[in-house]
Design a protein that fits this description.
- The chain folds into three domains: 131 residues, Ferritin, CATH 1.20.1260.30; 217 residues, Rossmann fold; 34 residues.
- The radius of gyration is 25 Å and the shape is globular.
- The chain is of the alpha/beta class.
- The model has no long low-confidence stretch (mean pLDDT 87).
Length: 481
């Protein structure tokens, strides 16, 4: 019987292994093991339902064969099998025409075993065997735990980019409002948060088995990094997608934008492309000269405009830098406003993505095929008495209730204001427009100013010490000559 304590027990066992260091490594190790258990449980169910069922994996790689029995392999024999047979075998699975097999080969391309002690690995396997993914109670309980595991990545350095707060993904999906029969895409899908909410949103509209089949075939995601891709397809299977073959491992920016045809276009795009980072050299050459940059978020905005069908709808996260940036960014915003109706920008507080980043972010909503006449802005306020969001006090979906009530009956108020296209053109397409009803920046309290000053002093002191060390070492080296 699965319980939340099962996952904690797995994490505690892994902490005893010297090869597993840090939250991201622990999650990476856990997720490929759980993936194989989910796959095996689903295969058992499919064997009963389908007359001509073909197993996803060769028998010796099936979870029930090497990990099922409590008295099976352990110690050095288990580590040797996993490192030198199981994982290499999964990376090199032959093309069989079985979509689940092909997906597994793709998922295990860059997967490794970090655990070094076979007895501890066996203990982890025994704990995972307590979960029956064919039991709806276990599956539902694990879904909640899985969401918490994903959230824990938010504080794990660069891995934080994999997780968009659940409240944000749900709000974006609700406002874009994908319908059964429409194609939905996340071109930088991460662990699949936007698509999970799209599934839940569209399933409320399902009236037949055919509708459910349409939904399963209509969601598309692309992710280039191995860990989030494994997390993604596990997430999809946990949410009832038997063959998440519309998820692809790759980088949507690597394909020259002119090569995307009408068949690639979709009705809805919901995404949080990585921001604050740059693409590898050469990626920018896939884009028209006037849009060539290595800033990831800007390239994705160009791509999204290309991938939307006429009358297609998009909801995406973008940093402030794109809103006020000049040069290529000005050209990009000009085209966005001419090709699309950028009808709404929701301005989020800086701390929404903390502790991963404190960059100020915005939610942009636009429709392809009609030019912008005016943009409505809505400044999302922090809850009363709260100075910032944090891991322990994150943004919540019910905070968006005011925006949702306002959405279809728009009036200017203390949080909402509109700006005409003429005004935006006068501003040279600078979209970083502050709330006109907000008083001049409120000064920090003396205590806050003193704390900021103290922190800056400490930073300066640290830099001076580093400079002093470098100079001392240089002089010492010179004196020994």
């Amino acid at each position: 019987m699965f319980s939340p304590s099962t996952i904690k027990a797995i994490q505690d066992i892994m902490r005893q292994d010297v090869g597993v260091d840090g939250d991201a490594t622990r999650l990476s190790q856990m997720v490929w093991l759980i993936y194989l258990k989910i796959l095996d449980d689903e295969d058992k169910a499919l064997e009963i339902r389908k007359d001509k069922f073909i197993p996803t994996l060769p028998k010796k790689y099936q979870w029930r064969t090497w990990a099922g029995p409590l008295d099976g392999m352990t110690g050095d024999k288990l580590i040797d099998f996993v490192n030198n047979d199981l994982l290499p075998g999964l990376r090199d699975l032959p093309e069989s025409g079985n979509k689940r097999t092909d997906l597994t080969r793709m998922a295990f391309k860059d997967v490794y075993n970090f655990m070094r002690k076979g007895t501890l690995l066996k203990q982890v396997i025994n704990k995972i065997n307590e979960i029956d993914f064919n039991a709806s109670k276990d599956r539902h309980a694990f879904n909640d735990i899985y969401e918490r595991l994903l959230k824990s990545l938010q504080s794990a350095g660069n891995f934080g980019e994999m997780y968009t707060p659940r409240a944000v993904t749900q709000f974006v999906v609700e406002m874009v409002n994908p319908k059964v029969g429409e194609s939905v895409m996340d071109p930088a899908v991460g662990t699949g948060g936007f698509l999970v909410h799209a599934l839940e949103h569209m399933r409320k509209q399902v009236k037949s088995v055919k509708d459910e089949q349409k939904i399963q075939q209509s969601i598309h995601g692309v992710e280039k990094k191995p860990l989030p891709f494994m997390l993604l397809i596990t997430n999809m299977m946990l949410h009832g997608i038997e063959e998440p073959v519309t998820m692809r491992r790759g980088n949507t920016l690597e394909k020259p934008i002119r090569d995307y045809t009408d068949s690639d276009k979709v009705d809805c795009i919901i995404t949080n492309p990585p921001f604050g980072g740059t693409e590898e050299p050469g990626i920018e050459s896939n884009f028209p000269k006037e849009f060539q940059t290595r800033e990831t978020a800007d390239l994705f905005l160009v791509l999204i405009m290309r991938l939307l069908k006429k009358h297609g709808r998009a909801g995406m996260v973008l940093p402030d830098g794109t809103l006020f940036g000049e040069g290529m960014k000005t050209t990009l915003k000009k085209q966005l406003l001419e090709e699309c109706n950028l009808h709404t920008i929701v301005r989020l507080p800086k701390s929404v993505f903390a502790p991963y980043t404190s960059i100020a972010t915005n939610l942009l909503f636009f429709t392809k095929g009609e030019s912008t006449k005016e943009i409505w802005y809505y400044e999302h306020p922090l809850p009363e008495g709260q100075k910032a969001y944090s891991m322990t006090n994150p943004i919540k979906f019910d905070e968006f209730e005011k925006e949702m009530k306002w959405w279809n009956n728009r009036e200017e108020n203390n949080q909402a204001w509109k700006v005409s296209i003429d005004e935006i053109i006068k501003r040279n397409y600078n979209l970083d427009i502050k709330n006109p009803r907000t008083p001049v920046d409120v000064l920090e309290s003396p205590e806050e100013l003193l704390e900021t000053y103290h922190n800056k002093q400490q930073e300066v002191k640290k830099v001076l010490e580093q400079i002093r060390t470098v100079i001392t070492e240089a002089l010492s080296h010179h004196d020994t000559k």
